[in-house]
Structures are given as structure tokens and as C-alpha cells.
Amino acid sequence: MSTVDPSLSNRDLRPTPPERRTWGFYNYTALWFSMCMEITTYQLASSLIAKGMDWKQAIGTVLLGNLIVLVPMLLNAHAGAKYGIPFPVFIRAPFGVRGANLAAILRAIVACGWFGIQSWIGGTAIDAMLQVIWPKAAGNAAVLWACFLGFWLLNMAVVWRGVDSIRRLQAFGAPFMFVMAAALLIWVRMKAGSFGTMLSTPSQFHSTRAFLRVFFPSLTAMVGYWATLALNIPDFTRYSKSQSAQSWGQAFGLPVAMVLYTFVGISVTSASAVLFGHAIWNPIALIGAFHEPVVAFIALVAILVATLNVNIGANVVSPSNDFSNLYPRLISFRTGGLITGFLGLAMCPWKLLATPDAYIFGWLVGYSGLLGPVAGIMVADYFLIRHTELDVNSLYHREGVYHYSKGVNPRAMVALVLGVGIALIGLAVKPLHFLYDYAWFVGFFSAGAIYIALMRLAAPAQLPQSAEEVA
Questions:
Q1: Spatial CB neighbours of 165, under 8 Å, sequence gap ≥ 6
Q2: Cα torsion through 17, 22, 27, 29, rounded to 10
Q3: pLDDT digits (tens, 9 = 90+) for 12-45
Q4: Does residue 81 lie in a domain region?
Q5: How large is the C-alpha radius of gyration of the chain?
Q6: pTM for this one?
Q7: CA-based nearest residue to 118, from 347, 336, 289
Q8: Which CATH number covers residue 41?
Q9: Helix axes of 317-326 and 100-133: crossing angle, nearest 10 degrees
Q10: Of 351, 409, 444, 447, which is least packed with CB atoms within 10 Å of its CB?
Q11: Facing residues of 470 across strands?
């Protein structure tokens, strides 16, 4: 046994003991159904209709994007299930015990933005519910902000109760949201008259070239949507009973849940174009357009449950661990969750959701260029450099094989900077804008290739014959 360095560890960052590895196939399937069946997923699908796709084009784009992102998701999940370590500890192997903080904070900042977005959605849903009960509240900015802050506090209360409360919340939320999504689909079908009518909105693209101009950045956005979870999935798979439980649960849960729920979003948005003459991509606005108080109230309750589910599962667990990793002795999971909440407020989520363009081509594609390179380096290091063998003890020590140069692996830093630069250069150099359209892919493959080349030029530190356990 070797005592860990207290500056690199706390209760939340240490490997998960066997008695706490209780998540099975259902838990991971429920995790993905809970996280997929929520408003930003709906808006992801509905925005494709608003941008001119028909339902077949939109479903195909969503399915392909999620099958692509499932690959790095499962690859990065392996280490969590094998060693019981969270994401910020896992990335110490390629980046160094100190350098890992940079990659972790990149991930955490994106999660803070998502936390703010989900909290804003929850707040607007509560505001809409109040308008059903109290019509005079309509248009009152003070009421809207009070609802927003109230929902934010509800999220903080769940964070304070810890990870086990998240598992219980999702176990309930998954079947509930499945029923509510089906109910919404049936209700709008009754309004439209038939599924044929709902899906009758034609494609607005009159040439393959016009379609591809929207398709490729949209595909990048689909991958970017889960680019955050593709990094920090070890935060969840560290609780898995086995590799097969997490891998099969995710391989089934992610694509199936995304296709089912995006079909709801696509169908309902297509129906709105038929019923109202234009596509309404915001479901809260759409529900209000029907002027049916009872239905609106039930639907908005469902939106609240879905938003709380995904906000806690996808946008709090990872940044809480990431911030904890900065200063483990002072920042616990709970404290990290509070930091996430306040930064989420500071990122002005109402602006990120202003239009489909701001949501897809600004937010989703933009941050995918930051996270794709991190994922490429993680996968390259774990599978191609280390062949899935980690010295867990050294992950918690400053003098171990992952200390590199003063705790930082300069090769990983160079690969990260170059990968991000190549992915985002299209924002500044117009002839290279196509690189931005493929930001996640460009960053993933370029950073991964650069990292492998640099690591093989300088032989990486070898693992000891028998890795020690962490005390």
C-alpha cells in the first residue's frame, strides 16, 4: 500500500471501491434515456427542421452523429470501469498530474455553459406554468428571473445530496419521460390529424450542394452535443459492475434514446409548420400556442423533470470532479457543484438559446473544437501508447510515471494547442472555414496524431511490473 499525495486526492477522486460499483445495464440505459429525453435534445432535432431539413434527413443526421460519438464514448469509458477512476484522474496519464487541470477545466467550462442553458430552460418552463395558473404573470421579467433562480436552487439541492441521489432520480426519470414523450407525440398527432400530415413538411433544399452545406456542420453539432460526455464518461463508468454492463448499456441506450426522442422533436416541429405556417423549434412556445391550460401544465411538469435529470447527470457530476481536482483538499464534489452553478449563471445562457444558428453553429460546433482534441489525446494515449495499462498509484503521486516535467506532459500540451488551433482556425481564416464545420473531427484526429508522433519520438515512461494500489 502507498499513501496518496493529499494535494492530488480526496474522497471523491479516489478509485471507486468494489462495494460501490453497483451500476448495471439498466442504470446505464436509464442514464442515457434520462439525458436524451430533455429539451435541448428536442431543440437539437427541431432546429434541423427549422434549418430546412425534412424528417428523414434530420433523423439520419442525428443517428449518424450519435453512432460516431458512441465510439470515443465507449473507448474512454473503458478506463473508468477497469480502474474505478474519474475523468480528471484518468487524464493525468496523458497530460501529467498537473497538466490534467487544463483539459479538465476546458471540459468543466463547457459543462457550466450547459448547466446555465438547462437552468434557463427549467426557469422558463416554471414561468410558463405560472402563466397558466396566473395569466397576469405573462411578460413579467421579475417573475421569469425568480423562476430561473428557483430552479437553479433546486438543482443545487440535488447536488448537495450526492451521486446516489442522481442514480435514484434517473431510475425514476427515464420511464416517466418515455411515457410523457409518447403522450406529446400522440397529442400533436391528434391536432394534426395524422402522422402523414405531421411529417409532410418537405425539405427546403433544392440541390445536394445546398443540403451538404447545412448537413456537415449539423453532423459536427450532433457529435459536439455529446462531446462533453465522451470525455467524462469515466465519471459514470467508475460505478459499473463490469465492462459489459456499461458498454452494452451505453451502446443500446444512447442511439436508441436519441433517435426515439429526436423523432418526437422532429415530428412535433414538422406538425407545427403545418398547423401554424412556420416551424416552432421551442417546445415551451409550441405548447403555449395551443392555448390548452391542462395539457400545458402537464407537459411543463414533464419538461421540469427532464431538465432536472439531465442537468444533474450531464452538467454537474463532471465539472464538480474537475474543480475538485484543482484543489482536492479544499474543493469537494459539493463545492465543485456550487462553483458550476455560479459559473453557469455568468455565461448568459439566454443568449446561447436565442436562435437555432446561435445554438448549433455557434455553441455546439464551437466548443466541439475545444473538446475533440482532448478526446483524441485521451484515446491515443490509453489505447495506442499504454495499451489500456495504467499505474493507478502514480496517478495520485507527483513523483510517479505521470509526473513528466514538473507535473506537465509538454507533448500533450503541444498536441492540444495545435489540435484546437487547426479546428478553430476557420473562424479567422475564411478560406479554411470548412475546418470549423468539421471542428470536432479535425481536432480529434489532428491532436491524436500529433500526440502519438511526439510520444513515440521520446519513449514514454514505462509502467512498473506490478502497479501498486491506492490507499
A1: 158
A2: 70
A3: 788 999 999 999 999 999 888 877 777 777 777 7
A4: yes
A5: 22
A6: 0.78
A7: 347
A8: 1.10.4160.10
A9: 140
A10: 351
A11: 2
